Amino acid sequence: MDKDVQKLNALLDFELLNKLIVGIGEVSKITGIPTRKIRYWEEKGAIQSEQDEEGSTRRYNYLNVKKILLIQEMVDEGFTLDAAIIKVEKRMRTLNEAFQKLANSISDDN
Fold this sequence. Notes:
Elements: H1 3-12, H2 14-19, E1 21-23, H3 24-31, H4 35-43, E2 59-61, H5 62-76, H6 81-109
Antiparallel strand pairs: 1-2
């Protein structure tokens, strides 16, 4: 199998995506976005960590890592942080609605 196709298959591995929860340091390393900026974005409500208890390390699921990458992309393109957050939230709602319709359509066919 082509290596590019194998890499894409990770995006289709729903079991992996459901289990994917990584610490803030790893998110920073993977995305190149400083942990301080990630914390700030969480304070602004753009993303949400999965904290088990007060003072524990912030951890992020797949959807929040995706939001982090999209927000950074938009900021790099010249959007303000607030505008990027609004645009990403709208995009995530649109995708969720579309996939919900697909899921309903598939369940209706069965």
